[in-house]
Amino acid sequence: MLMLSCPWCGPRSEEEYACGGEGHIVRPVNSAAMDDAAWGDYVFMRSNQKGVFFERWRHAHGCGRWFNLARDTLSHEILAVYRVGDDKPELPG
Amino acid sequence: MANYSILALARNALRRHRHWPEAWRSPKPKPSYDAIIVGGGGHGLATAYYLAKRHGMHDIAVLEKGWIGGGNTGRNTTIVRSNYLHPESAAIYDHALKLWEGLSQELNFNVMFSPRGVINLAHDPGEERELRRRIYANQLAGVDAEWVGPNQLAELCPILNLDPNIRYPVVGGTLQRRAGVARHDAVAWGYARGADRQGVDIIQNCEVTGFDIRAGRMEGVQTSFGDIRAPLIGVVAAGHSTHLAAMAGIRLPLDSHPLQALVSEPIKPVMPTVVMSNKVHAYMSQSDKGELVIGAGIDPYNSYAQRGSLPVIEETIRAVVELFPITSRLKMMRQWAGIVDICPDASPIISNTPVEGLYFNCGWGTGGFKATPGSGHLFAHTLAKREPHPINAPFSLERFYSGALVAEHGAAAVAH
Question: Which residues of A touch B255 (CB under 8 A)?
Protein backbone atom coordinates (compact mmCIF):
# COMPACT_ATOMS: atom_id res chain seq x y z
CA MET A 1 0.00 0.00 0.00
CA LEU A 2 1.36 3.40 -0.97
CA MET A 3 1.50 6.56 1.14
CA LEU A 4 1.59 9.42 -1.35
CA SER A 5 2.33 13.01 -0.51
CA CYS A 6 0.06 15.46 -2.30
CA PRO A 7 2.02 18.72 -2.89
CA TRP A 8 -0.93 20.65 -1.44
CA CYS A 9 -2.45 18.33 1.20
CA GLY A 10 0.48 16.28 2.48
CA PRO A 11 0.77 12.52 3.03
CA ARG A 12 -2.41 10.48 2.46
CA SER A 13 -3.13 6.83 1.71
CA GLU A 14 -3.30 5.66 -1.92
CA GLU A 15 -7.08 5.19 -1.59
CA GLU A 16 -7.53 8.98 -1.86
CA TYR A 17 -5.77 9.16 -5.21
CA ALA A 18 -6.43 8.24 -8.83
CA CYS A 19 -3.46 7.15 -10.93
CA GLY A 20 -3.27 8.86 -14.32
CA GLY A 21 -0.55 6.68 -15.84
CA GLU A 22 2.66 7.69 -17.56
CA GLY A 23 3.54 11.38 -17.39
CA HIS A 24 5.38 13.73 -19.72
CA ILE A 25 3.59 12.51 -22.86
CA VAL A 26 3.31 15.80 -24.71
CA ARG A 27 0.64 16.29 -27.37
CA PRO A 28 2.38 16.96 -30.69
CA VAL A 29 2.07 20.54 -31.94
CA ASN A 30 2.26 19.78 -35.66
CA SER A 31 -0.57 17.22 -35.63
CA ALA A 32 -1.70 17.95 -39.19
CA ALA A 33 1.69 16.84 -40.51
CA MET A 34 1.86 13.60 -38.53
CA ASP A 35 1.72 10.19 -40.19
CA ASP A 36 0.09 7.02 -38.80
CA ALA A 37 3.35 5.84 -37.24
CA ALA A 38 3.75 9.07 -35.26
CA TRP A 39 0.11 9.05 -34.16
CA GLY A 40 0.25 5.39 -33.09
CA ASP A 41 3.36 6.09 -31.08
CA TYR A 42 1.84 9.12 -29.36
CA VAL A 43 -1.57 7.59 -28.63
CA PHE A 44 -0.69 4.01 -27.72
CA MET A 45 3.01 3.26 -27.17
CA ARG A 46 4.21 3.49 -23.57
CA SER A 47 7.59 3.28 -21.84
CA ASN A 48 6.12 1.09 -19.03
CA GLN A 49 9.46 1.42 -17.28
CA LYS A 50 10.75 -1.34 -15.02
CA GLY A 51 12.49 0.79 -12.38
CA VAL A 52 12.18 4.60 -12.23
CA PHE A 53 8.86 5.67 -13.73
CA PHE A 54 7.44 9.18 -14.08
CA GLU A 55 3.68 9.22 -13.69
CA ARG A 56 0.65 11.43 -13.08
CA TRP A 57 -1.63 11.20 -10.07
CA ARG A 58 -4.71 13.14 -8.99
CA HIS A 59 -5.77 13.70 -5.40
CA ALA A 60 -9.29 12.64 -6.39
CA HIS A 61 -10.78 12.42 -2.87
CA GLY A 62 -8.91 15.50 -1.62
CA CYS A 63 -8.04 18.74 -3.34
CA GLY A 64 -8.69 17.22 -6.78
CA ARG A 65 -5.42 18.52 -8.22
CA TRP A 66 -3.01 16.72 -10.54
CA PHE A 67 0.68 16.27 -9.73
CA ASN A 68 3.63 14.19 -10.90
CA LEU A 69 5.47 11.40 -9.16
CA ALA A 70 8.77 9.62 -9.76
CA ARG A 71 8.34 6.08 -8.44
CA ASP A 72 10.30 2.84 -8.71
CA THR A 73 7.94 0.26 -10.21
CA LEU A 74 9.96 -2.63 -8.80
CA SER A 75 10.35 -1.46 -5.18
CA HIS A 76 7.39 1.02 -5.11
CA GLU A 77 9.79 3.55 -3.53
CA ILE A 78 8.64 7.14 -4.15
CA LEU A 79 11.60 9.15 -5.36
CA ALA A 80 10.12 12.58 -6.03
CA VAL A 81 6.85 14.49 -6.00
CA TYR A 82 6.60 17.53 -8.27
CA ARG A 83 4.03 19.78 -9.86
CA VAL A 84 2.39 19.44 -13.26
CA GLY A 85 4.39 21.40 -15.82
CA ASP A 86 7.70 20.91 -13.98
CA ASP A 87 10.51 19.07 -15.79
CA LYS A 88 11.48 15.55 -14.74
CA PRO A 89 13.55 15.94 -11.55
CA GLU A 90 17.20 14.93 -11.32
CA LEU A 91 17.29 11.82 -9.17
CA PRO A 92 20.31 10.84 -7.09
CA GLY A 93 22.17 7.74 -8.30
CA MET B 1 9.89 -41.78 -21.55
CA ALA B 2 6.90 -43.78 -20.37
CA ASN B 3 3.32 -42.80 -20.99
CA TYR B 4 1.20 -42.09 -17.95
CA SER B 5 -1.54 -44.71 -17.65
CA ILE B 6 -3.33 -46.79 -15.07
CA LEU B 7 -0.84 -49.60 -15.75
CA ALA B 8 2.12 -47.28 -15.21
CA LEU B 9 0.50 -46.06 -12.01
CA ALA B 10 0.01 -49.63 -10.74
CA ARG B 11 3.54 -50.64 -11.73
CA ASN B 12 5.06 -47.64 -9.98
CA ALA B 13 2.86 -48.06 -6.92
CA LEU B 14 4.35 -51.53 -6.49
CA ARG B 15 7.80 -49.94 -6.67
CA ARG B 16 6.76 -47.40 -4.04
CA HIS B 17 6.80 -44.53 -6.56
CA ARG B 18 10.58 -44.27 -6.37
CA HIS B 19 11.32 -44.91 -10.03
CA TRP B 20 9.12 -42.51 -11.97
CA PRO B 21 11.17 -41.03 -14.83
CA GLU B 22 11.69 -37.25 -14.68
CA ALA B 23 8.96 -35.39 -16.57
CA TRP B 24 11.47 -33.20 -18.42
CA ARG B 25 15.25 -32.84 -18.60
CA SER B 26 17.31 -29.90 -17.32
CA PRO B 27 19.83 -29.54 -20.15
CA LYS B 28 22.65 -27.04 -20.55
CA PRO B 29 21.94 -24.64 -23.41
CA LYS B 30 23.52 -25.45 -26.78
CA PRO B 31 25.44 -22.65 -28.59
CA SER B 32 22.70 -22.34 -31.20
CA TYR B 33 19.11 -23.34 -31.99
CA ASP B 34 16.72 -23.02 -34.92
CA ALA B 35 14.36 -21.08 -32.66
CA ILE B 36 14.24 -19.75 -29.11
CA ILE B 37 11.15 -19.05 -27.03
CA VAL B 38 11.74 -16.45 -24.33
CA GLY B 39 9.43 -17.14 -21.39
CA GLY B 40 8.60 -20.53 -19.89
CA GLY B 41 5.02 -19.94 -18.83
CA GLY B 42 2.05 -21.83 -20.22
CA HIS B 43 1.97 -19.79 -23.44
CA GLY B 44 5.71 -20.17 -24.11
CA LEU B 45 5.78 -23.89 -23.38
CA ALA B 46 2.66 -24.42 -25.50
CA THR B 47 4.34 -22.51 -28.34
CA ALA B 48 7.41 -24.77 -28.14
CA TYR B 49 5.21 -27.87 -27.95
CA TYR B 50 3.19 -26.99 -31.07
CA LEU B 51 6.30 -25.82 -32.96
CA ALA B 52 7.80 -29.27 -32.44
CA LYS B 53 4.63 -31.35 -32.73
CA ARG B 54 2.80 -29.58 -35.55
CA HIS B 55 5.61 -27.89 -37.47
CA GLY B 56 8.48 -30.36 -37.11
CA MET B 57 10.87 -27.88 -35.48
CA HIS B 58 12.67 -29.86 -32.78
CA ASP B 59 15.86 -27.77 -32.37
CA ILE B 60 14.23 -25.30 -29.99
CA ALA B 61 15.02 -23.89 -26.54
CA VAL B 62 12.65 -22.32 -24.05
CA LEU B 63 14.49 -19.81 -21.84
CA GLU B 64 12.87 -19.06 -18.50
CA LYS B 65 14.18 -16.41 -16.10
CA GLY B 66 12.76 -18.17 -13.02
CA TRP B 67 11.04 -21.54 -12.95
CA ILE B 68 8.48 -22.76 -15.48
CA GLY B 69 4.91 -21.76 -14.75
CA GLY B 70 6.06 -19.52 -11.88
CA GLY B 71 4.69 -16.30 -13.34
CA ASN B 72 1.09 -15.65 -14.30
CA THR B 73 0.50 -19.32 -15.20
CA GLY B 74 0.74 -20.08 -11.49
CA ARG B 75 -0.99 -16.88 -10.34
CA ASN B 76 -4.36 -16.80 -12.11
CA THR B 77 -7.83 -17.96 -11.08
CA THR B 78 -7.84 -20.82 -13.66
CA ILE B 79 -11.02 -19.74 -15.46
CA VAL B 80 -11.44 -20.85 -19.08
CA ARG B 81 -14.20 -19.32 -21.26
CA SER B 82 -14.68 -17.87 -24.73
CA ASN B 83 -17.76 -15.61 -24.51
CA TYR B 84 -16.14 -12.47 -25.90
CA LEU B 85 -18.07 -9.81 -27.79
CA HIS B 86 -16.29 -9.33 -31.12
CA PRO B 87 -15.97 -12.06 -33.78
CA GLU B 88 -12.15 -11.79 -33.80
CA SER B 89 -11.98 -12.39 -30.04
CA ALA B 90 -14.63 -15.12 -30.03
CA ALA B 91 -12.62 -16.88 -32.74
CA ILE B 92 -9.32 -16.76 -30.86
CA TYR B 93 -10.69 -17.70 -27.43
CA ASP B 94 -12.98 -20.42 -28.81
CA HIS B 95 -10.04 -21.84 -30.75
CA ALA B 96 -8.33 -22.17 -27.37
CA LEU B 97 -11.43 -23.64 -25.71
CA LYS B 98 -11.65 -26.36 -28.38
CA LEU B 99 -8.02 -27.27 -27.68
CA TRP B 100 -8.73 -27.34 -23.92
CA GLU B 101 -11.43 -29.93 -24.52
CA GLY B 102 -8.92 -32.49 -25.78
CA LEU B 103 -5.81 -31.28 -23.98
CA SER B 104 -5.40 -34.02 -21.35
CA GLN B 105 -5.48 -36.67 -24.09
CA GLU B 106 -3.22 -34.64 -26.38
CA LEU B 107 -0.57 -34.21 -23.67
CA ASN B 108 -1.05 -37.54 -21.83
CA PHE B 109 -1.19 -35.30 -18.76
CA ASN B 110 -4.29 -34.60 -16.69
CA VAL B 111 -4.85 -30.84 -16.89
CA MET B 112 -8.12 -31.35 -14.99
CA PHE B 113 -10.14 -29.25 -17.41
CA SER B 114 -13.57 -29.09 -15.81
CA PRO B 115 -16.29 -27.50 -18.00
CA ARG B 116 -18.54 -26.66 -15.06
CA GLY B 117 -19.98 -23.54 -16.67
CA VAL B 118 -19.21 -19.85 -16.18
CA ILE B 119 -21.87 -17.34 -15.18
CA ASN B 120 -21.48 -13.59 -15.78
CA LEU B 121 -23.93 -11.66 -13.58
CA ALA B 122 -25.99 -8.62 -14.51
CA HIS B 123 -26.99 -6.25 -11.71
CA ASP B 124 -29.20 -3.71 -13.48
CA PRO B 125 -31.28 -3.41 -16.68
CA GLY B 126 -28.46 -1.64 -18.54
CA GLU B 127 -26.04 -4.42 -17.79
CA GLU B 128 -28.69 -6.99 -18.70
CA ARG B 129 -29.08 -5.40 -22.14
CA GLU B 130 -25.31 -5.36 -22.58
CA LEU B 131 -24.95 -9.02 -21.61
CA ARG B 132 -27.89 -10.10 -23.79
CA ARG B 133 -26.18 -8.34 -26.67
CA ARG B 134 -23.09 -10.37 -25.89
CA ILE B 135 -25.15 -13.59 -25.92
CA TYR B 136 -26.48 -12.78 -29.41
CA ALA B 137 -22.98 -11.92 -30.62
CA ASN B 138 -21.64 -15.17 -29.16
CA GLN B 139 -24.36 -17.22 -30.81
CA LEU B 140 -23.65 -15.59 -34.17
CA ALA B 141 -19.95 -16.41 -33.69
CA GLY B 142 -20.71 -20.04 -32.89
CA VAL B 143 -19.96 -19.72 -29.16
CA ASP B 144 -22.49 -21.26 -26.77
CA ALA B 145 -24.23 -18.70 -24.57
CA GLU B 146 -27.59 -18.46 -22.85
CA TRP B 147 -29.46 -16.14 -20.50
CA VAL B 148 -30.29 -17.41 -17.00
CA GLY B 149 -32.82 -15.71 -14.75
CA PRO B 150 -32.83 -15.64 -10.94
CA ASN B 151 -34.66 -18.99 -10.56
CA GLN B 152 -32.12 -20.80 -12.70
CA LEU B 153 -29.28 -18.99 -10.94
CA ALA B 154 -30.57 -20.28 -7.60
CA GLU B 155 -30.33 -23.82 -8.96
CA LEU B 156 -26.94 -23.35 -10.62
CA CYS B 157 -25.33 -21.68 -7.63
CA PRO B 158 -27.32 -22.09 -4.40
CA ILE B 159 -25.01 -19.87 -2.31
CA LEU B 160 -25.56 -16.83 -4.54
CA ASN B 161 -27.42 -14.01 -2.78
CA LEU B 162 -30.55 -13.28 -4.87
CA ASP B 163 -32.15 -10.93 -2.35
CA PRO B 164 -33.53 -7.97 -4.39
CA ASN B 165 -32.73 -5.56 -1.56
CA ILE B 166 -28.92 -5.78 -1.61
CA ARG B 167 -26.82 -2.87 -2.85
CA TYR B 168 -26.29 -4.42 -6.30
CA PRO B 169 -29.15 -6.93 -6.74
CA VAL B 170 -28.67 -9.74 -9.26
CA VAL B 171 -31.17 -9.54 -12.13
CA GLY B 172 -29.82 -12.49 -14.13
CA GLY B 173 -26.73 -13.53 -15.99
CA THR B 174 -25.16 -15.24 -18.95
CA LEU B 175 -24.10 -18.86 -18.86
CA GLN B 176 -21.48 -20.51 -21.02
CA ARG B 177 -21.79 -24.23 -20.28
CA ARG B 178 -18.60 -25.27 -22.14
CA ALA B 179 -16.54 -22.90 -20.00
CA GLY B 180 -15.01 -23.83 -16.66
CA VAL B 181 -11.69 -24.19 -14.89
CA ALA B 182 -8.45 -26.13 -15.33
CA ARG B 183 -5.49 -27.01 -13.13
CA HIS B 184 -3.07 -24.16 -13.87
CA ASP B 185 0.24 -25.81 -12.86
CA ALA B 186 -0.64 -28.99 -14.75
CA VAL B 187 -0.95 -26.98 -17.95
CA ALA B 188 2.65 -25.73 -17.64
CA TRP B 189 3.91 -29.15 -16.61
CA GLY B 190 1.96 -30.98 -19.31
CA TYR B 191 3.24 -28.72 -22.08
CA ALA B 192 6.79 -28.82 -20.64
CA ARG B 193 6.77 -32.62 -20.61
CA GLY B 194 5.22 -32.75 -24.08
CA ALA B 195 7.75 -30.29 -25.51
CA ASP B 196 10.68 -32.05 -23.83
CA ARG B 197 9.59 -35.36 -25.36
CA GLN B 198 9.77 -33.65 -28.76
CA GLY B 199 13.40 -32.69 -28.10
CA VAL B 200 12.82 -29.12 -26.88
CA ASP B 201 15.41 -27.89 -24.34
CA ILE B 202 13.73 -26.21 -21.38
CA ILE B 203 16.31 -24.03 -19.63
CA GLN B 204 15.27 -22.54 -16.30
CA ASN B 205 16.98 -19.75 -14.31
CA CYS B 206 18.20 -18.35 -17.63
CA GLU B 207 17.48 -14.64 -18.01
CA VAL B 208 17.65 -12.93 -21.40
CA THR B 209 19.69 -9.73 -21.05
CA GLY B 210 19.87 -8.59 -24.66
CA PHE B 211 19.35 -9.40 -28.33
CA ASP B 212 21.95 -9.70 -31.11
CA ILE B 213 20.47 -7.87 -34.06
CA ARG B 214 22.49 -7.28 -37.22
CA ALA B 215 21.14 -5.27 -40.17
CA GLY B 216 17.61 -5.51 -38.82
CA ARG B 217 17.79 -9.29 -38.56
CA MET B 218 17.69 -11.42 -35.40
CA GLU B 219 20.85 -13.45 -34.77
CA GLY B 220 20.58 -14.54 -31.15
CA VAL B 221 20.18 -13.64 -27.50
CA GLN B 222 22.50 -12.71 -24.64
CA THR B 223 21.60 -14.57 -21.48
CA SER B 224 22.82 -15.19 -17.95
CA PHE B 225 24.22 -18.46 -19.39
CA GLY B 226 26.10 -16.72 -22.23
CA ASP B 227 25.22 -15.97 -25.85
CA ILE B 228 22.89 -18.33 -27.71
CA ARG B 229 22.44 -17.97 -31.46
CA ALA B 230 19.07 -18.36 -33.20
CA PRO B 231 17.54 -16.70 -36.28
CA LEU B 232 14.01 -16.94 -34.89
CA ILE B 233 12.95 -15.65 -31.48
CA GLY B 234 9.46 -15.67 -29.98
CA VAL B 235 9.02 -13.59 -26.83
CA VAL B 236 6.17 -14.63 -24.52
CA ALA B 237 6.94 -12.67 -21.38
CA ALA B 238 3.60 -11.18 -20.22
CA GLY B 239 4.30 -8.27 -17.81
CA HIS B 240 7.97 -8.12 -18.83
CA SER B 241 7.28 -7.78 -22.57
CA THR B 242 7.92 -4.02 -22.73
CA HIS B 243 11.21 -4.50 -20.88
CA LEU B 244 12.37 -7.14 -23.41
CA ALA B 245 11.08 -5.20 -26.41
CA ALA B 246 13.10 -2.18 -25.30
CA MET B 247 16.26 -4.33 -25.58
CA ALA B 248 15.46 -4.66 -29.30
CA GLY B 249 14.56 -0.97 -29.66
CA ILE B 250 10.84 -1.70 -30.02
CA ARG B 251 8.03 0.11 -28.19
CA LEU B 252 4.86 -1.73 -27.16
CA PRO B 253 1.44 -0.33 -26.17
CA LEU B 254 1.46 -2.10 -22.80
CA ASP B 255 1.22 -1.14 -19.16
CA SER B 256 2.23 -3.67 -16.50
CA HIS B 257 -0.05 -3.89 -13.47
CA PRO B 258 -0.40 -6.32 -10.56
CA LEU B 259 -3.49 -8.53 -10.69
CA GLN B 260 -4.42 -10.05 -7.36
CA ALA B 261 -6.19 -13.22 -6.31
CA LEU B 262 -6.74 -14.99 -3.03
CA VAL B 263 -7.99 -18.32 -1.72
CA SER B 264 -9.95 -19.24 1.37
CA GLU B 265 -9.42 -22.12 3.73
CA PRO B 266 -10.73 -25.36 2.17
CA ILE B 267 -14.39 -26.16 2.84
CA LYS B 268 -16.84 -28.81 1.64
CA PRO B 269 -18.17 -28.41 -1.93
CA VAL B 270 -20.54 -25.43 -2.05
CA MET B 271 -19.85 -23.87 -5.43
CA PRO B 272 -20.61 -26.07 -8.45
CA THR B 273 -19.88 -23.43 -11.05
CA VAL B 274 -17.90 -20.22 -11.68
CA VAL B 275 -19.59 -16.88 -10.99
CA MET B 276 -18.20 -13.58 -12.22
CA SER B 277 -19.43 -10.03 -11.82
CA ASN B 278 -17.94 -7.12 -13.72
CA LYS B 279 -20.12 -4.63 -11.87
CA VAL B 280 -18.84 -5.35 -8.37
CA HIS B 281 -15.32 -6.48 -9.40
CA ALA B 282 -15.38 -10.04 -8.16
CA TYR B 283 -15.36 -13.59 -9.34
CA MET B 284 -15.25 -16.86 -7.50
CA SER B 285 -15.01 -20.60 -8.03
CA GLN B 286 -14.12 -23.55 -5.83
CA SER B 287 -10.97 -25.58 -6.39
CA ASP B 288 -10.94 -29.35 -6.16
CA LYS B 289 -9.13 -28.98 -2.83
CA GLY B 290 -12.15 -27.05 -1.53
CA GLU B 291 -10.64 -23.57 -1.42
CA LEU B 292 -12.76 -20.74 -2.73
CA VAL B 293 -10.67 -19.02 -5.41
CA ILE B 294 -11.38 -15.29 -5.62
CA GLY B 295 -10.10 -12.87 -8.22
CA ALA B 296 -9.83 -9.09 -7.99
CA GLY B 297 -9.33 -6.31 -10.54
CA ILE B 298 -5.92 -4.86 -11.36
CA ASP B 299 -4.12 -2.45 -9.07
CA PRO B 300 -4.43 1.02 -10.62
CA TYR B 301 -0.73 1.85 -11.02
CA ASN B 302 2.17 0.35 -13.04
CA SER B 303 4.22 -2.16 -11.11
CA TYR B 304 6.68 -4.99 -11.61
CA ALA B 305 6.56 -6.07 -7.95
CA GLN B 306 4.60 -9.31 -7.70
CA ARG B 307 2.49 -8.06 -4.84
CA GLY B 308 -0.64 -5.98 -4.74
CA SER B 309 -2.07 -3.48 -2.31
CA LEU B 310 -4.85 -4.01 0.21
CA PRO B 311 -7.54 -1.54 -0.99
CA VAL B 312 -8.04 -3.62 -4.15
CA ILE B 313 -8.70 -6.89 -2.36
CA GLU B 314 -10.76 -5.15 0.31
CA GLU B 315 -13.09 -3.93 -2.43
CA THR B 316 -13.27 -7.42 -3.92
CA ILE B 317 -13.95 -9.05 -0.58
CA ARG B 318 -16.72 -6.52 0.13
CA ALA B 319 -18.39 -7.59 -3.11
CA VAL B 320 -17.84 -11.31 -2.49
CA VAL B 321 -19.34 -11.12 1.01
CA GLU B 322 -22.45 -9.43 -0.37
CA LEU B 323 -22.83 -11.86 -3.29
CA PHE B 324 -22.00 -14.98 -1.24
CA PRO B 325 -22.93 -14.31 2.41
CA ILE B 326 -21.56 -17.70 3.54
CA THR B 327 -18.04 -16.39 2.92
CA SER B 328 -18.29 -13.70 5.61
CA ARG B 329 -16.64 -15.85 8.29
CA LEU B 330 -14.17 -17.73 6.09
CA LYS B 331 -10.46 -17.23 6.64
CA MET B 332 -8.43 -16.24 3.62
CA MET B 333 -5.31 -18.36 3.46
CA ARG B 334 -3.18 -16.87 0.71
CA GLN B 335 -3.11 -13.74 -1.42
CA TRP B 336 -0.77 -13.03 -4.33
CA ALA B 337 -0.31 -10.95 -7.47
CA GLY B 338 0.91 -11.55 -10.99
CA ILE B 339 2.19 -8.83 -13.32
CA VAL B 340 -0.15 -8.56 -16.27
CA ASP B 341 0.43 -6.68 -19.53
CA ILE B 342 -2.59 -4.51 -20.22
CA CYS B 343 -3.25 -3.52 -23.83
CA PRO B 344 -5.24 -0.35 -24.67
CA ASP B 345 -7.99 -2.40 -26.38
CA ALA B 346 -7.88 -5.30 -23.87
CA SER B 347 -6.94 -7.69 -26.68
CA PRO B 348 -3.69 -9.60 -27.14
CA ILE B 349 -0.81 -9.01 -29.56
CA ILE B 350 0.56 -11.97 -31.56
CA SER B 351 2.73 -10.28 -34.08
CA ASN B 352 5.89 -9.85 -36.06
CA THR B 353 8.02 -6.76 -35.29
CA PRO B 354 10.24 -4.38 -37.27
CA VAL B 355 13.15 -6.79 -36.50
CA GLU B 356 13.20 -9.74 -38.91
CA GLY B 357 12.95 -12.99 -36.97
CA LEU B 358 11.65 -11.38 -33.76
CA TYR B 359 8.04 -12.05 -32.79
CA PHE B 360 5.99 -11.08 -29.74
CA ASN B 361 3.05 -12.79 -28.07
CA CYS B 362 1.84 -10.47 -25.31
CA GLY B 363 -0.89 -8.12 -24.15
CA TRP B 364 -3.12 -10.90 -22.78
CA GLY B 365 -3.59 -8.70 -19.74
CA THR B 366 -5.91 -10.13 -17.12
CA GLY B 367 -7.18 -12.99 -19.29
CA GLY B 368 -4.29 -15.00 -20.65
CA PHE B 369 -4.70 -18.32 -18.87
CA LYS B 370 -7.85 -19.33 -20.75
CA ALA B 371 -6.07 -18.77 -24.05
CA THR B 372 -2.97 -20.84 -23.26
CA PRO B 373 -3.42 -23.69 -25.79
CA GLY B 374 -4.77 -21.43 -28.54
CA SER B 375 -2.12 -18.79 -27.99
CA GLY B 376 0.68 -21.38 -28.20
CA HIS B 377 -0.86 -23.04 -31.23
CA LEU B 378 -1.30 -19.78 -33.15
CA PHE B 379 2.06 -18.35 -32.13
CA ALA B 380 3.79 -21.57 -33.25
CA HIS B 381 2.07 -21.23 -36.63
CA THR B 382 3.12 -17.56 -36.85
CA LEU B 383 6.76 -18.42 -36.04
CA ALA B 384 7.00 -21.49 -38.28
CA LYS B 385 5.38 -19.88 -41.33
CA ARG B 386 6.69 -16.41 -40.52
CA GLU B 387 3.21 -15.09 -41.13
CA PRO B 388 0.11 -15.00 -38.94
CA HIS B 389 -2.59 -17.66 -38.86
CA PRO B 390 -5.92 -16.17 -40.07
CA ILE B 391 -7.24 -16.32 -36.48
CA ASN B 392 -4.45 -14.16 -35.05
CA ALA B 393 -4.02 -11.88 -38.07
CA PRO B 394 -6.28 -9.18 -36.51
CA PHE B 395 -4.09 -9.16 -33.39
CA SER B 396 -0.98 -7.61 -34.95
CA LEU B 397 1.05 -4.74 -33.56
CA GLU B 398 0.12 -2.91 -36.77
CA ARG B 399 -3.44 -2.35 -35.50
CA PHE B 400 -2.21 0.43 -33.19
CA TYR B 401 -1.08 2.36 -36.27
CA SER B 402 -3.97 1.49 -38.60
CA GLY B 403 -6.60 2.01 -35.90
CA ALA B 404 -8.26 -1.42 -36.38
CA LEU B 405 -8.49 -2.14 -32.65
CA VAL B 406 -10.36 -5.11 -31.19
CA ALA B 407 -11.99 -3.29 -28.27
CA GLU B 408 -12.89 -5.88 -25.64
CA HIS B 409 -13.04 -3.83 -22.45
CA GLY B 410 -16.70 -4.73 -21.99
CA ALA B 411 -15.95 -8.43 -22.03
CA ALA B 412 -12.51 -8.39 -20.53
CA ALA B 413 -11.63 -5.37 -18.44
CA VAL B 414 -12.43 -6.77 -15.04
CA ALA B 415 -13.50 -10.34 -14.92
CA HIS B 416 -11.22 -13.03 -16.19
Answer: 21-22, 46, 48
